[in-house]
Design goal:
Structural class: mainly alpha
Distance between the termini: 17 Å
Largest sheet: none
Mean pLDDT: 89
Number of strands: 0
Order of helices and strands: HHHH
Number of helices: 4
Strand content: under 5%
Shape: elongated
Radius of gyration: 11 Å
């Protein structure tokens, strides 16, 4: 998954979580605020951050 896809999926999860679990949506928004300004190349270059986000997306995907 590319950096832009990760960011878009995180935004999508926030939207989905807001109707189901507002507390989860709040936490995801906090993560998004932290990650939104990270450049795509930097996101991919930081494997721990990338794996954290991928695991988060996989864990909370409703699909």
């Amino acid at each position: 998954m590319q950096a832009n896809e990760i960011k878009n999926r995180l935004k999508s999860l926030i939207k989905e979580a807001s109707t189901i679990d507002p507390n989860l949506a709040k936490r995801l928004e906090e993560i998004n605020r932290w990650v939104k300004d990270v450049k795509p190349g930097s996101l991919i270059a930081k494997p721990v951050l990338r794996l954290f986000l991928l695991q988060l997306i996989q864990r909370f995907s409703i699909e």
